[in-house]
Structure formats: structure tokens, C-alpha cells
Design a protein that fits this description.
Structural class: mainly beta
Helix content: under 10%
Radius of gyration: 32 Å
Strand content: 35-45%
Length: 1110
């Protein structure tokens, strides 16, 4: 029986997986006519690879038309023969990934032995397709200045796309994610969020499903071609509504080719940060990136190979500007701060604004006999201030290290005229060590010194092993039927462990925090986070274990039926995912002014460090993950695509795609779902099905319709409409429901500020609750995760209308409108957020009546909406005669009622009020109104083989062989939301009341917007809402600084031998050291409101390199 099941699964995978055709190939179409314009049937078209001599032959149909699909990107020779006509030949025909190229031929009468050779280049306009995208050619890939040699930067050269350092900062994919510090991969394409993209590697899935990022990042040295498609791709492609990014690797040829290179950077080459204090040294940096490649033939014209290796080593100081307690604060003296009040003196007062009053501490001093037994030890673990002042009075520079080793191996086998086989295997091993904020320190009660600091340091060591492989077979079954079969495999294996918290250490309990180490893999010190100060504890979110395996068999079929090119098939991807993580396994204490302020004058009284000394935390949290789940997902898709050449000038692209993702299941039913209607837990296999009540949606049909009209030679009008689905959910939605009762209990409590004897740190954490399913199902406790039963895959309606014009000198101009309407976008919010009002939060929570012990409920829904409209244009010249460039301009506006999928936008409290989420509709957090990018490769016209050849060998050696390259980017600023520094709702954060527009004409990093705060009568721009209400300000109503940047490189080639080239490279990123300012402080009522204290991107950096090739 087991063998039978295996055979059935294998058969389904092999015969049903008819998928995303040609996502790694090109197609050549055309019509053959005679001098009178009459069709020439049965003409033989032969396409020969210039590199491998691989040959494909077809014949024209009765209408003189031909189609040759599944051609590998590269350079070809096209031959046309027919008795009674002269043979026709064109060399140097370059085909690009996903390109549908057209070569129409008019044959001349004559003998077939006579040949007409054509030397003109193939047209750059796209006369057979309505898809919107951009190809980056090999010259640009190899020579453009890419910081860190990150190929994803190529994706933002075209219109409609931003990201990779120029989009919303701080997203999970920006290269700053603690467990994956490889170069960033975040892309926002045509109004779609950063998790909506589809990364392909030689046409095979390269997506890490938990964070919707990349599994393996190939070396630039191995990339032959790169294409990003952003709108209206045909029905044979799907899975996403954002961009499809396809990377094609190099292959061997009949010629031997190889390279060796090294790039280096260190701090001596770099400029200082704009905000670096005078006299401060540039952080130490040692970075080396090196590698080699080699390709050629094993059997000439038959078997070819290519391989490469890349290594990366980086050692860098991290600069933390910290706020630490002063020497006086360490003695309980807060006289230099503000009045502080004694929480023990709280009493009711019906006349007071809040209904309560407190007495101040005499002299603003907290007596030692009131100090908490635990925090009194930790305050001395802080280093002493290095400068005077209360804020930013200490700097630490611990060292971070990262290294990776990456390699690819590929073969191509031209078995015969009807069969071509190729394969590739890639691997990348990455090790990263991240330090704590402060140096190790000895704390009473602990055996050894420990490194403490802010919770967001993620101090620890990660090991990441990424694998990716593909095997491809292309077979010509008949002149009109072609098959392409693929099999793909990828694995993402990450283990990230906390620094110093070895198994069994139990550091928290040794410190004196009761129950701080009661969960598995929780042996560190809790997080202590005083608002306005640098934290003093160990990091959050560790350990992390993520293992993801994807298997993808693929079969593609193309049938030629006269004027119709019909493609059909299906796509199956099977994913196994393991995710283990505890956000606050050792516990967390958050301290605010709350317990030391005057409840009737919260903005001018109280201090979080005083609350820290007292041990009066405003929130206490602890969570555990008790299991390592094995999550399984099947992604199933089918399509039918018909490209119909209706006339010589008009082509229709008509398709229908179907997509279905099974609701995720856990192999052993170790996860749950909170039901917001009953207040109960649905536990898989106990009181619900294995999908915990989430219903699969089987009506995801995606029609596509496009057209391409060529009204005259060199001009194309294209347009289309289609529906595109996204994967349903990610790490932050469907896939972490094992992290709640009974498999991942979360203990959390908001300590009521209106009590005279609040819970203190020395009392520790509550014990792990009873985990019996029969108990917790009906009486859940703590924070919950809920997914609505009808949670579905989101989708986008995409449309475009574009004009393309071929220009002289190998140029093409494109201009058009591109739109995108997002529907059913995944979103989450706290369903159980307390309503504004006085008193304890519990009774004000919506679920208090049916689930009194439940605090927050992370409710995941699919009801988000977005709209995007843009004008996009490009002017492009493919590299020839020493010059190539791509310039792109985008005017756009994106509006939504959802946040970015993985952070990075400044939405403020979002949603502000869950009861009225529609008022959060506003400009998208990633929206950039204007964006212009120019990328250029230019070879100076001096030296041997150039326009001005130099006869003198010395002059030729000195003045010849110089190349310049640049990427110039300018764009307007990102939006942000004003927030109220001290909310009065008593129900979470709030925006202020808005009295004026809030902008100023003379913006400056010291004051970017109007920060005036007071009453409307005073003329202020912002004010405090009425007690226990929210402010009326909208979301993302202000704009931050724009960006302007030039990356530039200068190359010098030396050729000691005819076949050998040595190239010295100097690459300068941010050539003019232009400050790229971050968003300003948005806290209205905060003294720092409107100030900019950081930059995004980097100050000027210089990279030197040497590359030898043959």
C-alpha cells in the first residue's frame, strides 16, 4: 500500500505539474513573405546558438507564420530557406529571458544557394506581448556599481519599482533582518507590498515562504540575464501580484571562459555619517568579496559546463548611541529630569481629570528602601555616561561578523536536434555573529559576566544553509508540439541561537526573576525596556529555527495551431516548513512614565527609569514555543494561454489561470486557532479539523487579456487587463499558530496604573498555565492568534496601456499608464483592543464577557484594499558602440488601508481604533510620488579597437581601456504619520488632533514639519484630543525627505595577452556623499518632534576591485 501511494504521488507530480512555461526561456515568432507580401508556407527556419551550436528547426504554416518556443537566452544565428528564393541569414540576434521576439522576413526570388545577410539588430519594441517589465542585459549586470554585488538592486532600475535601500526602510527583507543579514531583497512593484513578489532562479521557485523573501542569492558573477516583470504577465505565470524576478545563470560554450576577482572595502575609504559627532572615528570595517568562475565544453557542440565560487568576509563595528541613567539616577535622584510621583500614594479624587491623584516623591528622589530587588542590580549594569546630558549620552561600538561561501555548478547537453538537457546545483552557507549593546559585565547572582543591552540587538550566532537545484529537459515532439520538463528543489535551513544563554544556564532565575526560565530553550535574562532609555537585558526573538523545503516538478507544453500559439499546463509546489521561535521566552518588562507621573499631567511628569528602579512595569509579557511544527502546504495552479496573431499588425494574448493553495496543516495537529465569536480555542485534532476551521477557497480564477498593435513600422500600442493572486499568509499570519495555547502559551498582562500596589519585577512571572486541551480550549489565557475562517488569498486587478517607439541608434522609448487594484489583502489587528475610557483595561475589552482572561487577539483577516495609478516611461539604449543606458521615470500614487507586510512604514498606531478601520485608509507606507533612475555604461572612445585608436603603445596603454558606469537616482520622500507622544485614550497609541496642514516651507533636519502643539486658539498645528478619545489626524499625511544618490564606477582594462584581460575597478557609492535623511521624529508633544537624527542608505563608500578574465 505504501509503495502504491508513492507511485500515485510520483505520477501526479510528473504528469500534472504542467507549469510556468518559459519563465527561464525566450520565444521567437515571425512571418515569412515574398516580395509581394504573400505568405511563404513550408519555409525552413533554423536557429543556431552562437555559443553552443545548439540547433532548432521549424517550418512555416500555410499563413507563412512560425513560432520557436523554449529558446535559452543568448545570441543566435537565424537562417531562412525555401526553394525558389535566396536564403536569408541574420547573425547576432539576441534573445532575452521571457522575451517574445519577432523577426519577419521578406524573401527575394533567386537560387537557394544565394544568401542575403542582414546585419541590422533585432527590434527592441515588443509587438507580440502586453506584459510590462524590464530586462537588464549582461553588460549592465557585470559592470554597474552594485554595493555588495547584490543582483536585486537591478530590479529597481526600471519604472514602477522601488526598494533595496530606496523604499520603505527597515522592512524584514532590507538586509537588516537579524537572522538573515545577506543583501536586501525588498521590492515594492506597482502598488504591491513587499511580500507580493515571485523570485525565480532559472525559472524555478526561489521563495522563502515564511518571510516571502529569497532562499538563495546567486553571485553576480554567475548571472547571465535578469528580468523583472511588473504588470500583466500572461496566464502561464502566477503565484504573485507583484513583480516576477527571474535570474538566469551563465552556461558554458565552445570557447573557454573564466574569471577571478576580489573586491575590498574598509573604513579608510568611507565617509562619516552625517550625524557622527566631531572627533568620532569611522566604525572599523574589513570587507572582502572574492571568487572565480570557469566554463567551457566537455564535448564540443554537445556538452558544456559552468561553475563559480564566491566568498564573503566582513568584520564591522556597530555603533550604538545609547541613553543610559546618570550617576544621580543610580542613586535614585531624578531632580534633573522632572517631577516624579509615588505610585503607593494613589487615591481616588472625583474632581481630578483622570479621577485619581498621587503625591510627588520629595526632592524627586526615590528612596532606596523602595527599590526593586532585581532592577537595583541591573541599574549598575549600565555603563556610566560618557557625556553630559540626559539623552544620547553614551556610545558603544561592539563588533559584528559575517561570512558566506556560495557556489553554482551547471551543465548543458545538446543530446540531438530534438533534445536538450541542462541542470544546475547551487549552495550558500552563511554565518553571522551579532553583538550585544554593552560589553560583558558581572552582575550579583550570576556566575560569569554577561553581555546586556537593548532587546533589538539580536545578539547571537546564526548559521544559514541554502540549497537550490533544477533539472531541465526540452524536447521537440513534433514540428508543432514542444515540451519542456523541469524539476526543482530548494531548502532554507537556519539556526539562530542567543548569545550566552547555553542550555541549562537559567540566568534569569539566578538574577532573581521568578519563573523567567520556565520554558524550553529559555535560559537567558529577561528583557528590561525603560521607555526613552536603552534597554538592559538580553535580546528578544531567539532562538530561531526555520527549515523550509520546496519540491517543484514542472512540465510545459506549447502547441502551434496556425496563427495561434497555445500553451497549457499546471504548476504544483509542495512545501514543508518548520518554524521555532520565542519572542520573549525569558520574559519582558516594559517601563513607562505611567506609575511615576501625575495622572492629571502625564506629559510633564514621571520618568521610565524611576519606574524601573521601583520595579513597576506597565506591561509584563512572556511566551514559550513548546513544539517545532512541521507545516505542509500544496500550491496548485493550472492555465491555458493563447497568443493569437490575428493580423500582421495585431496580436491578442488571451489566458485563464486557476490557483489553489491548500490551507496549511501541521503534521501532528500541533496548532490552534482562536474563535473570536465564541472566545474559545479551536485545537487541531481535538475539537476541530486539521486546518483549525480555515476553509480553502476554490474559486481563484484569473483571466488575462492583452493586445499588441503595430500601426506602423517601429511603433507598438499595447495594453491589457488581468487578475493576479498572492500566496495566502506568511510568518505573521497563518503559519505561527503553534505559538499559542496549548503548544505556545503567552503570559501577558497590562498592569493597571490606577492601583496603589502594582505587581513588581521581583515578583517574577506567572507560572505556565494548565496546558490540558480540555482546560485551555474553553478558558484561554493571555495573547491569542486568530485567523478568520474565510481567510483567502489576496488578489490584484492589473491593467496597462503603453506606447513603444523604436528610435535610431538602437534606442526605444516607452510611455504608458499602469494601474493596480488590490483586493482581499491580508491584514491583522488587535481584535480585543480595549475601548477608550477610565479604569482597568480588562472590562473595556470587547471579548471580556466571553473570554475575560484573554488580552490581545492578533486577528488575521483578508479584507484589505489598495489602489495604484501611475505614469511610467523609459528611454533605453542597448549597449553598442561603447554606450548603453536605461532611464526610467515614474509618477505614482498608492493608497491602501493596510500596512506593509513586514514593517518598514511609519503608520503610527495602526489601526488607531479597530472599530473604525476605514478611517485608516491613506497613502501607502511605501508610496513615492516621483522617481527617476538613470543607469549607464560608457566606454571611453580611446585606445585599440576604439573610435580614436592610439598608435603609440604607451599612449594606448595609458589612455585606452577606460570604462565608466553610473546609477543616478532621485525620488520624493516617503509618507509618515504624526503620533501623540503621550496618548490620553487609555487604550493604546493615538494620533493627535490636527488643526493645520502641519507642513512648513523651509524644511530642515532640525525641524522638518510644523511641530507646534497646543490649543486651536493658540495657533498650534496639533493638539491633544479630549480625555479618553483618539485624535483626528489621518494616516501618512506628512512626507519625509526625498533621496538623491549617484553610484559611480571607473574601470581600467589591461590586456597583456590577446585572450586575457585584467580589469581594475574603483566603485564609489553615494559619490557626492549626499545625506540620505531618514524620516523625522513623529511624536507630537515630544521635544524631539520634527527632528531627523539618522540617515538611510550610507554615506560615501568606496570599493576597489581587480577582475581577471579570459
Amino acid at each position: 500500500m505504501r509503495r502504491f501511494r508513492t507511485l500515485v504521488v510520483a505520477a501526479v507530480l510528473l504528469f500534472s505539474a504542467i507549469a510556468v512555461w518559459g519563465q527561464s526561456s525566450a520565444q521567437l515568432n515571425g512571418t515569412i513573405t515574398d516580395n509581394s507580401g504573400a505568405a511563404v508556407p513550408d519555409a525552413e527556419i533554423t536557429v543556431v546558438s552562437s555559443e553552443t551550436a545548439a540547433e532548432r528547426k521549424v517550418k512555416t504554416d500555410g499563413a507563412g507564420q512560425y513560432t520557436i518556443p523554449f529558446l535559452s537566452p543568448g545570441e543566435y544565428i537565424v537562417n531562412v530557406r525555401h526553394e525558389g528564393f535566396r536564403s536569408w541569414k541574420r547573425e547576432g540576434v539576441r534573445l532575452e529571458v521571457n522575451q517574445v521576439a519577432r523577426i519577419d522576413v521578406s524573401l527575394e526570388l533567386g537560387a537557394v544557394t544565394e544568401t542575403v545577410s542582414v546585419t541590422s539588430t533585432a527590434p527592441l519594441i515588443e509587438s507580440d506581448s502586453s506584459a510590462v517589465g524590464q530586462v537588464v542585459e549582461t553588460k549592465a549586470i557585470e559592470d554597474l556599481p552594485l554595493n555588495g554585488r547584490n543582483f536585486v538592486q537591478l530590479a529597481i532600475l526600471g519604472p514602477g519599482v522601488n526598494g533595496v535601500g530606496f523604499g520603505a526602510r527597515g522592512t524584514i527583507m532590507s538586509g537588516s533582518r537579524p537572522d538573515d543579514l545577506r543583501p536586501g531583497s525588498e521590492i515594492f512593484a506597482n502598488g504591491n507590498r513587499e511580500g507580493s513578489n515571485n523570485f525565480l532562479f532559472d525559472g524555478i521557485d526561489n521563495n522563502e515562504r515564511l518571510t516571502l523573501s529569497i532562499v538563495l542569492r546567486p553571485s553576480v558573477e554567475s548571472v547571465r540575464e535578469f528580468k523583472i516583470q511588473t504588470n500583466m504577465f500572461t496566464a502561464d505565470q502566477g503565484r504573485n501580484s507583484g513583480a516576477t524576478i527571474n535570474v538566469i545563470t551563465k552556461s558554458g560554450s565552445n570557447e573557454w571562459h573564466g574569471s577571478a576577482y576580489e573586491f575590498l572595502r574598509n573604513q579608510a575609504f568611507d565617509a562619516k555619517n552625517f550625524f557622527t559627532r566631531p572627533g568620532t572615528n569611522t566604525p572599523t570595517l574589513r570587507q572582502n568579496q572574492f571568487g572565480a568562475s570557469f566554463g567551457g565544453h566537455a564535448i564540443r557542440n554537445k556538452v558544456f559546463f559552468f561553475g563559480n565560487y564566491e566568498g564573503y568576509r566582513r568584520r564591522q563595528e556597530r555603533v550604538f548611541v545609547n541613553t543610559v541613567p546618570t550617576l544621580a539616577m543610580r542613586n535614585g535622584d531624578f531632580s534633573a529630569v522632572r517631577d516624579i510621583f509615588d505610585p503607593a500614594t494613589l487615591r481616588a479624587d472625583p474632581v481630578a481629570r483622570s479621577g485619581f491623584v498621587r503625591d510627588p516623591f520629595p526632592g524627586r528622589i526615590v528612596p532606596r528602601n523602595r527599590w526593586d530587588a532585581v532592577t537595583s542590580k541591573l541599574i549598575d549594569a549600565y555603563p556610566l555616561p560618557q557625556t553630559s546630558g540626559l539623552a544620547n549620552n553614551h556610545t558603544s561600538t561592539p563588533k559584528e561578523a559575517q561570512e558566506w561561501n556560495q557556489g553554482d555548478g551547471r551543465f548543458d547537453w545538446n543530446l540531438n536536434e530534438r533534445n536538450i538537457i541542462s541542470g544546475r546545483y547551487s549552495r550558500q552557507d552563511t554565518a553571522t555573529t551579532r553583538p550585544s549593546t554593552f560589553a560583558p559585565v558581572t552582575i550579583p547572582g550570576l556566575d560569569t559576566p554577561v553581555s546586556l543591552g537593548n532587546e533589538d540587538t539580536f545578539a547571537g550566532t546564526s548559521q544559514l544553509y541554502a540549497h537550490h537545484s533544477v533539472l531541465t529537459w526540452v524536447r521537440t515532439l513534433s514540428p508543432s508540439l514542444i515540451l519542456e520538463a523541469k524539476a526543482g528543489f530548494s531548502r532554507f535551513n537556519l539556526r539562530f541561537l542567543q548569545e550566552g544563554a547555553s542550555q541549562g544556564a537559567r540566568l534569569g532565575e539566578k538574577l532573581g526573576v521568578v519563573n523567567s526560565n520556565q520554558g524550553p530553550n529559555s535560559d537567558g535574562i529577561p528583557i528590561f525596556s525603560p521607555a526613552g532609555y536603552t534597554g538592559i537585558g538580553q535580546t528578544r526573538s531567539l532562538p530561531i529555527i526555520r527549515i523550509e523545503t520546496t519540491i517543484q516538478p514542472v512540465v510545459n507544453l506549447t502547441k502551434l495551431l496556425g496563427a495561434h500559439t497555445v500553451k497549457f499546463g499546471a504548476d504544483f509546489r509542495h512545501r514543508d516548513l518548520t518554524q521555532y521561535q520565542t519572542n520573549r521566552g525569558n520574559g519582558r518588562f516594559n517601563f513607562a512614565r505611567t506609575f511615576t507621573d501625575d495622572p492629571n499631567n502625564t506629559g510633564a511628569t514621571g520618568d521610565a527609569m524611576a519606574a524601573f528602579l521601583l520595579g513597576t512595569a506597565s506591561t509584563i509579557e512572556q511566551d514559550f514555543t513548546l513544539v517545532q511544527p512541521l507545516i505542509r502546504i500544496w500550491e496548485s495552479n493550472g492555465y491555458l494561454q493563447d497568443d493569437w496573431r490575428a493580423t500582421q499588425k495585431l496580436t491578442f494574448n488571451i489566458g485563464l489561470r486557476y490557483e489553489y493553495d491548500t490551507p496549511p496543516t501541521e503534521k501532528y495537529n500541533r496548532w490552534t486557532n482562536f474563535d473570536v465569536t465564541t472566545g474559545k480555542l479551536l485545537i487541531a485534532g481535538f475539537n476541530t479539523d486539521d486546518a483549525t476551521g480555515i476553509q480553502g477557497y476554490k474559486k481563484n480564477f484569473a483571466p488575462r487579456f492583452g493586445f499588441a498593435l503595430q500601426p506602423r513600422q517601429g511603433t507598438v500600442v499595447r495594453g491589457g487587463y488581468g487578475i493576479f493572486y498572492n500566496p495566502a499568509g506568511s510568518e505573521s499570519q497563518l503559519l505561527r499558530r503553534h505559538r499559542q495555547l496549548p503548544f505556545g502559551p503567552i503570559n501577558a498582562e497590562d498592569v493597571n496604573q490606577f492601583v496603589a500596589n502594582p505587581r513588581r519585577v521581583q515578583a517574577g512571572f506567572r507560572p505556565i498555565p494548565n496546558l490540558d486541551p480540555s482546560v485551555v480550549a474553553n478558558n484561554p489565557v493571555g495573547n491569542m492568534i486568530a485567523v478568520e475562517p474565510g481567510f483567502r488569498a489576496g488578489y490584484a486587478q492589473q491593467f496597462n496601456l503603453q506606447i513603444q517607439q523604436q528610435l535610431p541608434s538602437s534606442m526605444v522609448f516607452k510611455v504608458g499608464y499602469v494601474g493596480n487594484l488590490g483586493r482581499r489583502l491580508d491584514n491583522s489587528y488587535n481584535y480585543n483592543q480595549q475601548l477608550p475610557g477610565p479604569g482597568a483595561p480588562g472590562p473595556r475589552r470587547p471579548l471580556f464577557a466571553i473570554a475575560p482572561n484573554v488580552l490581545t487577539v492578533d486577528y488575521n483577516v483578508s479584507d484589505g484594499r489598495s489602489s495604484y495609478h501611475s505614469l511610467q516611461s523609459t528611454l533605453e539604449r542597448r549597449f553598442s558602440s561603447g554606450l548603453g543606458f536605461l532611464s526610467s521615470y515614474t509618477w505614482a500614487h498608492s493608497i491602501d488601508n493596510v500596512g506593509n507586510q513586514f514593517g518598514g512604514s511609519d503608520n503610527g498606531p495602526f489601526p488607531q481604533d479597530p472599530r473604525y478601520r476605514n478611517v485608516d485608509r491613506g497613502t501607502s507606507g511605501f508610496d513615492i510620488t516621483h522617481r527617476f533612475v538613470l543607469s549607464m555604461n560608457y566606454s571611453l572612445p580611446f585606445g585599440k579597437g576604439k573610435r580614436w585608436s592610439l598608435a603609440n603603445p604607451f599612449a594606448n596603454g595609458m589612455l585606452g581601456g577606460w570604462d565608466t558606469n553610473l546609477i543616478f537616482t532621485t525620488q520624493t520622500g516617503l509618507p509618515f504619520t504624526p503620533t501623540l507622544a503621550n496618548a490620553v485614550s487609555n487604550a493604546g497609541g493615538s494620533r493627535p488632533d490636527r488643526y493645520k496642514e502641519g507642513t512648513i516651507s523651509n524644511k530642515d533636519p532640525a525641524r522638518w514639519y510644523d511641530t507646534s502643539f497646543g490649543s486651536m486658539a493658540s495657533g498650534a498645528a496639533w493638539g491633544t484630543p479630549a480625555q479618553f478619545t483618539y485624535g483626528n489626524s489621518g494616516r501618512n499625511i506628512l512626507r519625509g525627505p526625498g533621496r538623491r544618490n549617484i553610484d559611480f564606477s571607473l574601470f581600467k582594462d589591461f590586456s597583456p595577452k590577446e585572450f586575457l584581460k585584467a580589469q581594475f575597478r574603483a566603485e564609489v557609492f553615494n559619490l557626492f556623499n549626499t545625506p540620505q535623511f531618514d524620516l523625522p521624529n513623529s511624536g507630537i508633544g515630544n521635544p524631539a518632534a520634527g527632528t531627523i537624527t539618522g540617515i538611510v542608505g550610507n554615506p560615501r563608500q568606496i570599493q576597489l576591485g581587480l577582475r581577471i578574465s579570459f
